[in-house]
Design goal:
The protein is an all-alpha fold. It contains eight helices and no strands. The longest helix is centred in the C-terminal third of the chain and has 34 residues.
């Protein structure tokens, strides 16, 4: 089983070295789609981008993908809620916005900092709020940065362990 995993990882690295730009764009696009669907398993993909692309490029891929993907999810969900549940959406949105009116940046950053809450629930909460694009991107980037930093760093360190484990004795 592990031989197949090692074979896949080595195959991916060979392709990555030959076509870095293509694989970078494909991976970024697939992460945007993944995060726009708010599927579970995001930390595994964040770790794997640190593993395959290194810390700096992996961090950029992760932060860009999660911000764009979450914004797409929230935008679509707002449109769906507004069309299907118009009166409920407006009433709940007004109550929520009145509660968070004075210190919305702090609450939005805290929502993103809580690591146990699934991305789907966070984005669902954000879809009921009337916030600007700039407020969304600033608060989300500040809130997501620590956990993405940690997971991407963890992935890059796993690669170093993998590299040591898979190197020859002559090296």
């Amino acid at each position: 089983m592990f031989d197949n995993l090692y074979f896949f990882i080595n195959f991916f690295y060979e392709q990555l070295e030959n076509n870095f730009t293509l694989f970078f764009l494909l991976y970024l696009f697939s992460l945007i789609i993944f995060f726009s669907l708010s599927l579970p398993g995001g930390p595994v993909l964040i770790i794997s981008s640190g593993f395959f692309f290194g810390f700096y490029i992996g961090f950029l891929i992760n932060i860009i993908a999660i911000l764009i993907g979450s914004y797409i999810f929230i935008y679509i969900l707002k449109k769906i809620f507004y069309k299907l549940f118009n009166s409920f959406y407006i009433k709940f949105s007004k109550k929520l916005n009145n509660l968070l009116e004075h210190s919305s940046y702090e609450y939005l950053i805290l929502i993103r900092l809580i690591a146990g809450v699934p991305l789907f629930i966070q984005n669902l909460f954000f879809s009921f709020m009337n916030i600007t694009k700039s407020k969304f991107f600033i608060s989300s980037s500040l809130g997501f940065s620590p956990i993405i930093f940690f997971l991407t760093y963890f992935g890059s360190k796993i690669y170093e362990i993998y590299e040591i484990n898979y190197s020859n004795y002559s090296e």
